[in-house]
Design goal:
This protein is of the alpha+beta class and 168 residues long. It contains three helices and nine strands, in the order αβββββαββββα.
């Protein structure tokens, strides 16, 4: 944080802060998921976008095949978390519809400016944003929150794969 200039560019924030943090946790789950960077999501004209990062099911056909996404991470451009959540939520809805699991699957979202990280989830057309925000300055707590999200995605994948779901 002290050595890099990252505040001038959204790409710098993504590449020097957000991606390395996500990658650290992703390594623990890479046998089940693929981490995509700037992958287009297109459901229809209104529900499309390019989130900064997507965690999706790892395809048995190889890492180049995009399969069922479980969460998106979006950089809050110019520290505008309201617009960031608007973008993130639209992409979460697109994912729900693309996955054809809109009534069952929980989709997770993260909006971050690199320093501050906010978490939310979408299930049954109900969006819930976590009131707690995490910072890069308390990395242990941030990694624990991210690990929770990855683990929840892993549980979602297991439920879909086994055909068993808790519809609560």
């Amino acid at each position: 944080m002290k050595e890099l200039t990252f505040e001038e560019s959204e790409y710098a924030i993504c590449e020097t802060i957000i991606f390395p943090v996500l990658k650290e946790l992703y390594r623990l789950y890479r046998d089940k998921f693929t981490l995509w960077s700037h992958k287009s999501l297109i459901y229809n004209e209104k529900l499309s976008g390019v989130p900064d990062y997507i965690i999706a099911k790892r395809s048995p056909l190889g890492k180049e095949i995009f399969e069922q996404p479980f969460f998106v991470a979006v950089e809050a451009k110019r520290d505008d978390f309201t617009k960031g959540w608007g973008q993130c939520l639209a992409e979460m809805v697109a994912i729900q519809k693309m996955n054809d699991q809109s009534e069952q699957q929980t989709i997770y979202g993260i909006v971050s400016n690199g320093q501050l990280w906010q978490f939310g989830k979408l299930r049954n057309n109900r969006f819930t944003k976590n009131f707690a925000a995490y910072t890069i300055y308390n990395l242990e707590q941030l990694l624990a929150a991210l690990n929770y999200v990855f683990r929840q995605c892993e549980l979602e994948l297991e439920a879909i794969t086994s055909g068993c779901r808790d519809n609560s």
